[in-house]
């Protein structure tokens, strides 16, 4: 079993120390626990790709990735340049994860419309793939214009940056299967993963003549004895996803009512059993998120369990 964890620095409001120093320390602790990869989301206060590149440079035996950078409000040429820089900095240990993004949040923030999101995703992926594979792009599409007037390949950014998409709906999954290396579903429980996401993604990849796609499942998990308190904390921390239509759909397909219902909370045996169910449903990798909801000691137990499961295979 390939298992990683999602990391994030504390905010200024939370009294955080230097964000980069903090996350580098977290990454080193994750590696010491036996984990092979760390992943970074995207917020308004830090850049996930930059952070992944920095951490991968500082902790050279860790794989790093973003899960995930919204494409709304971004241009693929600039995003490709960032990703290639991270790939060169980490000597080939970086994975770019992208997402359509929550239009209700990002549209007003960036002053952009989210018209024709699937078409935009396809065109975005075409540009990324072209730059990563050939060092140039020439697309005058329906939603994106991306023409590189100068060479856009970066020395050292090899192998070609793998791209994963946080796709969960059927149209996004088909585009991902055809044009990307895999998907990054979050809040997709084993039922949704096995019955909806994996079959749609795999069929699209096979039809396009592409290799078996990666399925990197992001799973909230905390090893703790105080399950009631952590469950309450997870309900509070994860409630915002219940207002986003794409997550509402996948939560329902998973057979759950609330986002936190999908969190794995309990002792080592219970959490390990839950993680195995994701692999049995078709996940090729699992990334544990929200591991800090039970405090530092619970997080250490969670990471230690994940490292042990990874070592056992």
UniProtKB/TrEMBL annotation:
Residues 8-284 form the Luciferase-like domain. Pfam families: Bac_luciferase. It comes from the Bacteria. Gene3D superfamilies: Luciferase-like domain (3.20.20.30). The keyword Nucleus does not apply. The keyword Phosphoprotein does not apply. This is Luciferase-like domain-containing protein.
């Amino acid at each position: 079993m390939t298992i990683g964890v999602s990391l994030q620095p504390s905010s200024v409001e939370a009294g955080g120390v230097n964000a980069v120093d903090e996350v580098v320390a977290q990454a080193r602790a994750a590696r010491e626990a036996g984990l092979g990869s760390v992943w970074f989301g995207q917020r308004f206060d830090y850049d996930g790709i930059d952070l992944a590149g920095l951490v991968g440079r500082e902790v050279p035996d860790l794989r790093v990735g973003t899960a995930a950078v919204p494409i709304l409000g971004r241009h693929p040429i600039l995003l490709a340049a960032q990703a290639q820089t991270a790939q060169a900095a980490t000597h080939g240990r970086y994975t770019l994860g992208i997402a359509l993004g929550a239009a209700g949040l990002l549209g007003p923030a960036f002053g952009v419309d989210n018209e024709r999101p699937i078409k935009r995703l396809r065109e975005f992926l075409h540009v990324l793939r072209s730059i990563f594979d050939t060092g140039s792009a020439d697309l005058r599409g329906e939603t994106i214009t991306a023409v590189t007037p100068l060479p856009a390949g970066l020395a050292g950014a090899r192998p070609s940056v793998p791209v994963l998409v946080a796709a969960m709906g059927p149209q996004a999954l088909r585009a991902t299967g055809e044009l990307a290396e895999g998907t990054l579903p979050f809040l997709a429980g084993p039922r949704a993963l096995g019955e909806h996401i994996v079959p749609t993604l795999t069929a699209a990849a096979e039809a396009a003549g592409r290799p078996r796609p990666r399925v990197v499942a992001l799973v909230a998990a905390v090893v703790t004895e105080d399950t009631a308190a952590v469950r309450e904390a997870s309900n509070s921390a994860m409630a915002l996803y219940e207002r986003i239509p794409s997550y509402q759909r996948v939560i329902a397909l998973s057979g759950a009512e609330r986002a936190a219902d999908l969190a794995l909370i309990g002792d080592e045996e219970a959490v390990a059993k839950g993680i195995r169910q994701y692999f049995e449903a078709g996940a090729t990798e699992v990334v544990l998120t929200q591991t800090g909801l039970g405090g530092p000691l619970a997080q250490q137990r969670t990471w230690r369990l994940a490292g042990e499961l990874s070592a056992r295979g």
